[in-house]
Amino acid sequence: MKFFTNGTMTTTAMLIMTMLYPQVQSFIPTTTVTSRIARATVTAAFQKRVSVSTAAASSESSSDVSDLGLTMEDLDAPLPPELLQNLASSGYESTTRNLDNADDRGCEWKENLDNLEVILSISGLRGQPAQCISVEFSTTTATVTAFGYVIWSCVLRGECVPESAKFNVVDGQDMVPVIQLTVDKKEKQRWGGFIAQVGENTISDLM
Length: 207
Hints:
Number of helices: 4
Largest sheet: 5 strands, antiparallel
Shape: elongated
Distance between the termini: 86 Å
Structural class: alpha+beta
Radius of gyration: 38 Å
Strand order of the largest sheet: 3-4-5-10-9
Number of strands: 11
Helix content: 25-40%
């Protein structure tokens, strides 16, 4: 037989207590009422605290910026060119014409308004010595050769300055040479990448 439920005296327990100890009868209602009042007081205090915390969080999430003197026209205005000049963008491109390998990320590029830095990892060069690889540029194309034979080429996304091109070739993972190159742009504008189209004379996809 249970005399207490969740810390509160049951009705059966109260009846037994009044039968055995009549003198405590007057205390039982007072104890029950006091317990209920205590619970009600704690609940009200908790709800008030939650309400205050929510209001404070709402206040902190908003800020008054009226003193900055900005208008909607100011926010919609384009950023000044001198601010964007030194910002660099980067990404990856595929070096293959094979659509099954379109996500090979063989070309890693990084550009600013003046030039591009490019890292090429072409699977068709696997096993070729780094010393035998060369890179040649025209205004709109880049060509990679091994022992003088064209292995890979591409059409560029913009016009470059061929005489500014510099490259270095090092041994990479899985015997695939890594080509590191830089080239200046003919005009100061964003290309959004390096490769516009992989050349039709590329034989690396067949190797």
